Amino acid sequence: MMMYKKMMGVLLAVPLFICANQSAAAEEPEDLYNEPMTIKLIPSQTFTADIHGSYELIDLKTGETLDVDRDVTFRHGTDTVSVEVSDDVLETSTEGYVLQENSPSSNNYVTISSVKRAGSSFQQTSYRGSFKMEPEEKRNPDGAAEEQRRNKEDEEQTRNRVQLYNILEIEDYLKGVVPHEMAASWPMEALKAQSVAARNYAKVNMQANEFLYDTVTHQVYHGKSGEASRSNEAIKATEGTYIEHNGSLIYAYFHASSGGYTDNSENVWSSRVPYIRAVEDPYDTHSANTNTSWTVQLTQEHADDAVFPEDEWELTNLTITEKSNAGRVQTMKAEAIHTETGEEKSITLPEASSPDSLRWSLGTTLKSTMFDIKKEQPNSITVKTADGSASSYDSALGMKMKQADGENEVITYENLAVRMSNGVSYVGTKPSSYQIDGQGFGHGLGMSQWGAYKMAKDGHHFRDILHHYYTDIDIVHR
Asked: How does pLDDT run across 170-224, given as a tens digit for each residue?
């Protein structure tokens, strides 16, 4: 009986503790979680939150808790957030609101009626964890560090709406990430390797930013709506497992397919990273991987517009001038002719950016920089010179051709009309297109997902997979 009374005393003390700190907790929902993640979402201007489990809604300006129904509707204002807490009660705050778990539980989640899920389309989506809703005037474009905001479109899309953040435990965040980075049907050891890599990537990014996006800018995140049981199992099995190099967490870069060889970081993004070193990757090239080889036809027009956008310059040739030892293109030479003067010039690609930018700078999108290129030439052009000799050229653009009246005219058009004994023939004056043959998919740094798939199929443990792709690392529990 004495023990029972003591237990009752402890239980009665708990509610008093929560009430006493309620206002302070409202402003820091991150304090509810051991490893908090803050993810910025893009809701509709007006959206409803359907509450499941135990939550409280708190005004960030007053610290007061509001009585709410199961459904609450939030409305955008430039300097306010309004919330309809019941059919006849509308509250407004200049600081915004927190909708937070009373205590973390797997039974708690909130369904947002309309949110642009992972940058795709507006749809109903459920999320675990807590939420913060702030006025648009508190919008913070610099909350995600500049080096992480590879796609500035993310922040632009948060204009004219409530600034909505999902705050939750890292393990719950991963549940909405992993099955969208790797198919949940893949071998379990591959899913475990992906879980650890994604955990590292999330943790390191969160340490450098106030918030992350739910898109490929950081990691694709679909919330509770995007979870899968097998990937949840892999996350649980590796809970708290991280990769370190010399005692520090690594950026665990990963990509779809290495094309048979991963690369050194400086051959892709310029900076040398000691744990991202090139490794031969025979596991990547197998029949299930559709990225083992690919071909792209690049039209002359698209290449010319991308490389020489000025009207007076015309692209005449594209060649690879340097590759890394792993086979990724480092530099290319682009040649052009001035269509009025016949002047020639050449530039080196990429211009003032990393080698990986070549994937987007040639007038098309390439799966990787592991490729070869060749011209698709309609005809070789034979030119007879004044001394009577003849030479063959790939392009006649910019050359001068003697006209019937004796005047010289610079060739500036793609198809040249030549009068023959049997009529007029049209001759191409430049390449019609380029054929690009490549291997792999992605930047080629760190773990190949298709390689991890094959290693797992062959019976390798997730730790073996991580040690294969990352150099001089330790796998630890934190």
From this structure: 999 999 999 999 999 999 999 999 999 999 999 999 999 999 999 988 999 999 9
Contact 96, 155 (CB under 8 A): no
Query: Would the CA dihedral through 25, 27, 30, 31 be positive or negative?
Result: negative
Pairing of strands 381-384, 371-376: unpaired
* pTM of the predicted protein model: 0.82
Q: Choose among 63, 45, 82: nearest CA to 159.
A: 45
Coil, strand, or helix at residue 121? coil
Residue 238 DSSP symbol: T
Task: Classify strands 447-448 and 254-255 as parallel, antiparallel or unpaired.
Answer: parallel
DSSP 136-189: GGG--TTSS-GGG-S-THHHHTTTTS-EEEEEEEHHHHHHTTHHHHS-TTS-HH
Tell me how far apart the terminal alpha carbons of the chain are, to the nearest angstrom: 41
Query: Residues with Cβ < 8 Å from 432, sequence gap 6 or more?
Result: 299, 300, 376, 377, 378
- pLDDT 10s digits, 170-181: 999 999 999 999
User: Position of tokens 């937070």?
Assistant: 100
Distance CA 161, CA 37 (A): 22
Token duo for residue 261: 């060889």
CA separation for the pair 451, 447 (Å, rounded)? 8
* b/e 187-200 (16+ beta carbons within 10 angstroms → b): bebbbbbbbbbbbb
Read off φ and ψ for residue 202, nearest 5 degrees: -65, -45
